[in-house]
Design goal:
Structural class: alpha/beta
Distance between the termini: 17 Å
CATH class: Alpha Beta
Oligomer: single chain
Shape: globular
Number of strands: 5
Largest sheet: 5 strands, parallel
Length: 144
C-alpha cells in the first residue's frame, strides 16, 4: 500500500502562489512514478479556505509538509495557520515564508519548523525541503 503525503501551500499572493505551485508540482511529478508514495497537493490563496481544509480532517491521516506565507492580512498570519495545522495533525512539518527576516524570531512561541526568506532563492529552498521530506517519509522495502 502506498503512503500518502500531503503538500500544502498557503500563499495569498497569486503570483507567488503560482510560482511556488509550479516548482513544487515539478518535484511531485518526478515522484509520481515512485511506487512507495502518493502525493496530494493543496494550494490556497485565501487563508479562510485553507483553514476550512485543515479543519475538515482531510489532512489528518497523512504526513504533511506545509509552506505558509507569514503576512496573510486581516490580523491573520502564517503562524496562526501553522498552529491550527499542527493541532490537527502532529505529523506536520511547517515552513514559514516571509520577505522579512525579522519574522523568523518575532514570536517567542513559533510553531514553524523552518523559515525561508522570500527572495530569488526561496523556490529552490522550498523544492529542497519538499524533496528531503518525501525522502525521509518514504520507507522503501528492505531498508531500515
Amino acid at each position: 500500500m502506498k503512503k500518502t503525503i500531503n503538500v500544502l501551500l498557503m500563499e495569498d499572493s497569486k503570483y507567488y502562489n503560482d510560482l511556488l505551485s509550479r516548482v513544487l508540482r515539478s518535484s511531485i511529478r518526478s515522484v509520481r512514478g515512485n511506487t512507495y508514495c502518493q502525493i496530494e497537493f493543496f494550494s490556497f490563496t485565501e487563508y479562510q479556505k485553507c483553514i476550512r481544509k485543515i479543519k475538515s480532517g482531510d489532512l489528518d491521516r497523512n504526513d504533511t509538509i506545509a509552506f505558509v506565507d507569514y503576512y496573510l492580512g486581516k490580523g491573520v498570519n502564517g503562524d496562526h495557520i501553522i498552529k491550527i495545522l499542527k493541532e490537527a495533525n502532529r505529523n506536520t512539518t511547517a515552513i514559514l515564508i516571509s520577505q522579512s527576516k525579522a519574522v523568523a524570531g518575532r514570536s517567542s512561541v513559533n510553531h514553524h519548523d523552518y523559515f525561508i526568506v522570500k527572495d530569488a532563492t526561496a523556490p529552490a529552498f522550498c523544492l529542497l525541503h519538499l524533496e528531503q521530506f518525501i525522502e525521509n517519509k518514504t520507507v522503501k522495502p528492505g531498508l531500515y
